[in-house]
């Protein structure tokens, strides 16, 4: 039995080497023919055969493939251009770009060859070649993080490829468009693209890309802190991948890394460590060297930052430092800066960590990555504080707070947009389901009675259409009410959270700062006492902005008058006020919404109007309270502003008005100022 197994093994090895030697002999013969052939057309054919043969030996002699593939494809492209066969040159350029990006990791070389062929784009007759060429340029810009240009290239590619039958290329372009939107933080367009491409992947039965689609949707859920939905999406992706005959271990590694990131956010560090070690196991089995490097980087950061075990972190860094190509690449460079900064901080070497942190910050500024900028500013604050450079520490703390507020607003807007998108998707799916149901009913009719049923069918169709339109109208009205209810609940929740944070700032943080000030004064450190005074004032101002406690103490009338006077004092704008006594007209919740209505109206004037003067009139009428706010600013086209999805300010005013059951009118013309009129019923 043992002898039989040894015999089989010897035969297999012999056949492998025989096959390998045959392939190498074939390459050698083709190289000789290419070098000794003078005919250009024959040489083009031989170069094509040679590049295909070299591609076939990728698995058996990777080094030879990596060294020689680009060399002969470039010769083919140059010769095709000489023969004015630009379509052939474009086709091979797309394949060569893929090689440059995935194998030799030289995006700059890929960009040069793509730009060269695109100069002759007018001569490309086959649409699929032109579309794939723009897609290749998009992939290059995506890899070097020039994301805005990547979006433009992918849109061009999609527009061209959608007119061809190349569904696979079209779907990949749409998928990467969504991925690029995601990296830019444009989650709405990312979700829409992923939903659009999912149907194409199902049509193609491409479970790998279906899984990657789920992974990216999971990432968006994680960004919105919807951890249960994120975990559910990853579970579906994992199921798709493990059902394959040869599972994509790099993708499974990525899923485990995403599990780790969510678990860290929830401070479940033991589970997070388990997920990362599982990710490393998958990446070792996979063929993606890049995936393995990223997993080791995450492990290094984890043991430095969350376990405070720099000696274990160092073990994973050594592997990364040995690979100069990865370390100096666009993604690898940021990863290397991150792991080195965390390692130095874990060792208590904060001064040595600062240069790495500064380089990271510059990279994230170019990428417009607000979340990563926030994390870096926090680390810089801690590092400068540890080395007792308090002025630099305070500067980074101030930037951290500004970025935190900005990120909060972005996440809040993205959450609202996400639920709106979810609603639109459900509405579309219900419409498709209703249409399919109608078709199935019509197709189920007896063929023998077809002629008899023509006129009856018309009547039934009209009846079904009427029922469908009626039910659709009821459905739209119900969903509109749900959407309004959700947005109003969101505003109420925001107010409750703001009140709680405001109270904590005033009662806890404020008192702590006063204690610090008293201790500083005892030490006769007047300079630090002045800084602490400034911080106390800022905390009080933030507390008052988050929740107007003056409203509960002095009433709505005085609070509105005080707010207007404060704006008049602190901004370069003259404000006149005529405010009737409206105390005790409304309950506390409605008073807060009225105050916010006025506050947000003046915020819009200060941000957008360029007005020199403004006026507020509050009239206590028999049936309602009328609030009129005017400015002499630049004005705007009301119809266009109402249609613009980005005008969150107007949307918020409209939602608060609905909550108060108030009428809300906008009167504005360009260069003629703006007037906002709110009529709030007393007994709604």
If you had to describe this structure to a student in words, what would you say it looks like?
Its EC number is 2.7.13.3. It holds the Pfam family HATPase_c. GO terms for molecular function: protein histidine kinase activity. It catalyses: ATP + protein L-histidine = ADP + protein N-phospho-L-histidine. The protein has 684 residues and is mainly α. The radius of gyration is 32 Å and the shape is globular. Helices cover 77% and strands 5% of the residues. A five-stranded mixed β-sheet has the order 1-2-3-5-4, covered by helices on one side. It has helices at 2-36, 40-56, 62-82, 86-102, 107-118, 127-143, 147-161, 167-183, 187-204, 207-223, 227-242, 249-265, 269-285, 289-305, 310-321, 324-328, 330-346, 350-367, 370-386, 390-443, 453-522, 526-546, 549-554, 556-570, 588-609, 638-643, 648-659, and strands at residues 574-579, 613-620, 624-631, 663-668, 674-681. Helix 12 (249-265) packs antiparallel against helix 13, helix 13 (269-285) packs antiparallel against helix 14 (289-305) and helix 14 runs parallel beside helix 17 (330-346).
Features:
684 residues; 27 helices; 77% helix; globular; disordered N terminus; 5-stranded mixed sheet
Largest sheet: 5 strands, mixed
State the helix count: 27
How confident is the prediction overall: mean pLDDT? 79
Biggest sheet: strands side by side, in what order?
1-2-3-5-4
Give a count of the beta strands, DSSP E runs of length 2 or more. Answer: 5
Shape descriptor reads: globular
Q: What integer value in Å does the Rg equal?
A: 32 Å
Structural class, please? mainly alpha
Distance between the termini: 92 Å
Approximately how much helix is present in the residues? over 70%
Q: Beta fraction of the residues? A: 5-15%
Which runs of at least 5 residues are low in confidence (pLDDT < 50)? 1-22
Transmembrane segments: 452-470
Catalytic activity: ATP + protein L-histidine = ADP + protein N-phospho-L-histidine
Protein name: histidine kinase
EC number: 2.7.13.3
């Amino acid at each position: 039995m043992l002898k039989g197994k040894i015999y089989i093994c010897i035969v297999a090895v012999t056949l492998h080497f025989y096959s390998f030697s045959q392939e190498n002999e074939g390459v050698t013969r083709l190289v000789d023919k290419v070098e000794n052939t003078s005919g250009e057309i024959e040489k083009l054919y031989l170069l094509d055969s040679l590049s295909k043969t070299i591609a076939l030996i990728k698995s058996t002699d990777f080094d030879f493939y990596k060294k020689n593939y680009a060399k002969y494809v470039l010769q083919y492209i140059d010769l095709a251009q000489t023969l004015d066969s630009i379509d052939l040159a474009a086709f091979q350029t797309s394949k060569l770009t893929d090689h440059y990006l995935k194998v030799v990791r030289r995006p700059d070389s890929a960009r040069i060859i793509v730009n060269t062929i695109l100069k002759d784009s007018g001569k490309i007759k086959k649409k699929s070649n032109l579309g794939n060429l723009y897609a290749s340029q998009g992939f290059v810009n995506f890899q070097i993080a020039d994301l805005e240009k990547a979006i433009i290239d992918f849109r061009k590619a999609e527009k061209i490829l959608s007119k061809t039958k190349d569904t696979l290329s079209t779907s990949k372009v749409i998928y990467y468009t969504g991925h690029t939107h995601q990296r830019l933080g444009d989650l709405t367009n990312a979700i829409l693209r992923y939903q659009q491409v999912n149907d194409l992947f199902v049509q193609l039965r491409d479970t790998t890309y279906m899984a990657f689609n789920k992974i990216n949707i999971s990432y968006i859920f994680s960004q919105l802190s919807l951890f249960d939905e994120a975990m559910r999406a990853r579970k579906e992706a994992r199921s798709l991948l493990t059902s394959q005959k040869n599972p994509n271990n790099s993708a499974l590694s990525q899923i485990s890394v995403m599990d780790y990131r969510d678990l860290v956010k929830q401070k479940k560090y033991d589970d997070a460590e388990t997920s990362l070690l599982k990710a490393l196991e998958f990446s070792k089995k996979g063929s993606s060297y890049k995936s393995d490097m990223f997993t080791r980087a995450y492990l290094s950061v984890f043991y430095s930052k969350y376990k405070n075990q720099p000696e274990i972190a160092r073990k994973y860094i050594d592997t990364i430092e040995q690979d100069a190509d990865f370390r100096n690449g666009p993604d690898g460079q940021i990863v290397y800066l991150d792991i080195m900064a965390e390692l130095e901080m874990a060792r208590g070497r904060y001064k040595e960590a600062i240069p790495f942190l500064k380089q990271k910050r510059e990279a994230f500024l170019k990428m417009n990555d607000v979340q990563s900028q926030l994390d870096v500013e926090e680390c810089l604050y801690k590092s400068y504080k540890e080395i007792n450079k308090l002025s630099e520490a305070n500067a980074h703390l101030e930037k951290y707070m500004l970025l935190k507020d900005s990120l909060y607003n972005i996440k809040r807007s993205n959450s609202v947009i996400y639920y709106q998108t979810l609603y639109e998707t459900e509405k579309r799916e219900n419409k498709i389901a209703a249409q399919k149901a109608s078709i199935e009913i019509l197709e189920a009719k007896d063929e023998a009675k077809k002629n008899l049923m023509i006129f009856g069918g018309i009547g039934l169709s009209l009846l079904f259409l009427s029922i469908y339109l009626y039910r659709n109208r009821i459905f739209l009205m119900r969903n509109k009410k749900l959407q309004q209810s959700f947005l109003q609940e969101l505003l109420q929740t925001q107010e409750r959270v703001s009140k709680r944070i405001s109270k904590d700032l005033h009662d806890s943080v404020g008192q702590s700062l006063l204690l610090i000030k008293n201790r500083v004064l005892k030490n006769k450190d007047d300079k630090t006492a002045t800084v602490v005074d400034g911080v106390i004032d800022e905390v009080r101002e933030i507390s008052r902005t988050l929740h107007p406690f003056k409203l509960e103490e002095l009433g709505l009338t005085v609070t509105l008058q005080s707010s207007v006077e404060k704006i008049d004092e602190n901004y370069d704008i003259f404000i006149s006020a005529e405010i009737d006594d409206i105390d005790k007209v409304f309950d506390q919740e409605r008073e807060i919404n009225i105050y916010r209505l006025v506050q947000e109206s003046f915020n819009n004037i200060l941000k957008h109007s360029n007005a020199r003067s403004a006026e507020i009139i509050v009239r206590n009428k028999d049936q309602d309270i009328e609030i009129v706010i005017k400015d002499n600013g630049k004005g705007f086209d009301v119809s266009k502003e109402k249609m613009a999805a980005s005008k969150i300010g107007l949307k918020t005013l409209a939602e608060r008005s609905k909550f108060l059951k108030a009428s809300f009118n906008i009167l504005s013309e360009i260069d003629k100022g703006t007037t906002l009129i709110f009529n709030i019923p007393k007994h709604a």
